[in-house]
């Protein structure tokens, strides 16, 4: 979708725009057709070199002149392309920019240069209660391949409503009427838009940052008096996860030996799931475990912000590594030049590239542990584990280590930008505060 011609996007008959679809400024939002604008990185050519024009279907949805719309789209594409170093960052920024320009162009009829403080506030209110036609019930690809073309997916929506894992298992279905914009999503909205307008100012595309003009963001964003509690597994839950895997190892050793190593890495090395999966940015290999001149073992990874870091490897993690490598028929510990994928596919070559697949693998382990806890009568522990996500393993590993290790050491191994982030995992003061409150009386007599 680049160059002097419009993007090659085709709409099905059900998507063909109807007239009138464009509401006048200040009017209510009609049931308009929605067309995604920005594709995945692997389908986006360098907009700095080849430009970026919106598709004909997109032009049909607004009264904004084509030259103005294409100028806005080029600015957006170039801004997003600067975040190509991280697929996760690109995806999150694309989500916010897509929502914003959809609203500006198709709801308000605004070019980016026309946006002012009151428009940002109106957009925030819009995001807090978007029309049902803008809300989907599952995440889908924006575009699909068809007849050699990238075709707009009619099921795509700017907003998605979801239910928790536990509610989904109980039979609950996502309901667009129950959509709620979380505080973290609001914070992301303000952060991305402010960064975007600062970029536009530097590119001399706009004269001011309307987000910075909002003096009372507190009416949208709540402030916590204390640091929020980090979600993690209890000692009993983590123990049952390990025991559950051990109990089924004999059933399918290829599968469960790999699962055991995955959860060990997430807990023992504080890895993010994106640091386990292979990508264009980083392919985790066995040689990324290495020994220094003093005989200490380290693991090298690339994390958020494309930052490389070395993680100290504990004796227990080294034991887990030996066990997995011996099962694979490799040397007990990696040698220089060992390009074996860290988390290999069971069928096929190469490492697992899908974070979704890793999530599924860990979820299977959680499910087995949940069944064990229920069988033991630990219903509360089981119910809590049903809500856990893969990222909780990283949180749990950090929380356990910060009890005994210097926080600066944990900070560097975890890849935290500051000690303040690591401090979130230290809950000694919270425990003491609760202990001092335990004896409080309602009736002093």
UniProtKB/TrEMBL annotation:
<dbReference type="InterPro" id="IPR010998">
    <property type="entry name" value="Integrase_recombinase_N"/>
</dbReference>
<feature type="domain" description="Core-binding (CB)">
    <location>
        <begin position="70"/>
        <end position="201"/>
    </location>
</feature>
<dbReference type="GO" id="GO:0007059">
    <property type="term" value="P:chromosome segregation"/>
</dbReference>
<keyword id="KW-0233">DNA recombination</keyword>
<feature type="domain" description="Tyr recombinase">
    <location>
        <begin position="228"/>
        <end position="445"/>
    </location>
</feature>
<dbReference type="GO" id="GO:0003677">
    <property type="term" value="F:DNA binding"/>
</dbReference>
<protein>
    <submittedName>
        <fullName>Integrase</fullName>
    </submittedName>
</protein>
<dbReference type="GO" id="GO:0005737">
    <property type="term" value="C:cytoplasm"/>
</dbReference>
<keyword id="KW-0159">Chromosome partition</keyword>
<dbReference type="InterPro" id="IPR011010">
    <property type="entry name" value="DNA_brk_join_enz"/>
</dbReference>
<keyword id="KW-0963">Cytoplasm</keyword>
<dbReference type="InterPro" id="IPR013762">
    <property type="entry name" value="Integrase-like_cat_sf"/>
</dbReference>
<dbReference type="GO" id="GO:0006310">
    <property type="term" value="P:DNA recombination"/>
</dbReference>
<dbReference type="GO" id="GO:0051301">
    <property type="term" value="P:cell division"/>
</dbReference>
<dbReference type="InterPro" id="IPR002104">
    <property type="entry name" value="Integrase_catalytic"/>
</dbReference>
<keyword id="KW-0238">DNA-binding</keyword>
<dbReference type="GO" id="GO:0015074">
    <property type="term" value="P:DNA integration"/>
</dbReference>
<keyword id="KW-0229">DNA integration</keyword>
<dbReference type="InterPro" id="IPR050090">
    <property type="entry name" value="Tyrosine_recombinase_XerCD"/>
</dbReference>
<keyword id="KW-0132">Cell division</keyword>
<dbReference type="InterPro" id="IPR044068">
    <property type="entry name" value="CB"/>
</dbReference>
<keyword id="KW-0131">Cell cycle</keyword>
